Fold this sequence. Notes:
Blueprint: E1 8-9, E2 12-13, E3 19-27, H1 30-41, E4 44-47, E5 53-56, E6 63-68, E7 79-85, H2 88-94, E8 97-98, E9 109-112, E10 118-123, E11 134-141, H3 144-155, E12 159-161, E13 167-170, E14 180-185, E15 196-201, H4 204-210, E16 213-218, E17 221-225, E18 231-235
Parallel strand pairs: 3-6, 7-10, 11-14, 15-18
Antiparallel strand pairs: 1-2, 3-15, 4-5, 5-6, 7-11, 8-9, 9-10, 12-13, 13-14, 16-17, 17-18
Amino acid sequence: xxxxxxxxxxxxxxxxxxxxxxxxxxxxxxxxxxxxxxxxxxxxxxxxxxxxxxxxxxxxxxxxxxxxxxxxxxxxxxxxxxxxxxxxxxxxxxxxxxxxxxxxxxxxxxxxxxxxxxxxxxxxxxxxxxxxxxxxxxxxxxxxxxxxxxxxxxxxxxxxxxxxxxxxxxxxxxxxxxxxxxxxxxxxxxxxxxxxxxxxxxxxxxxxxxxxxxxxxxxxxxxxxxxxxxxxxxxxxxxx
Length: 240
């Protein structure tokens, strides 16, 4: 890990060295879930000896680990992916299921993956669908501006917001391959472990000084939580 020490000016720390690394999804059966996400995102599948799977694209930030867990999904995902798609039929053929509640005016469709994880599909003309089809990472937030600003400071980018909107977003996050990282307002707080989380490369002490909580030490990485309780894993910068 780096030996950097966070510096505070006027109550705000200077930008650290944190970079986005990859995404991770909990699954009861990664072998059943991996083909869906590979097709939906335009990634290739590598099955691991321990039963997990890793999906990779052409850039390091285009990686999704699918990890085996014993517990099923029990509540709405607080972290989900919005994705580009040529058609809903393509996703349904891969195993997606449409959720029953959808407002007619919404420009997207809310779907479940084969294990019930939420995602949103934005149908585009084929020439506007990129090879890596992940569009946005969306995080439910009790205070979207505060948690968005926290992560903006961590990554050293500006928080974006439109007056009157109940969401904020980040662009240009180091190592991040999607168009935006969105923090959207919801009324309910987090109650269970997120089924999807992100990994970063950075310095644990720096993140603790910024307000993150250290949860677990694992061989090679540290599990932490941001100020709203969202889990994320921190790897030494050399592992990025």
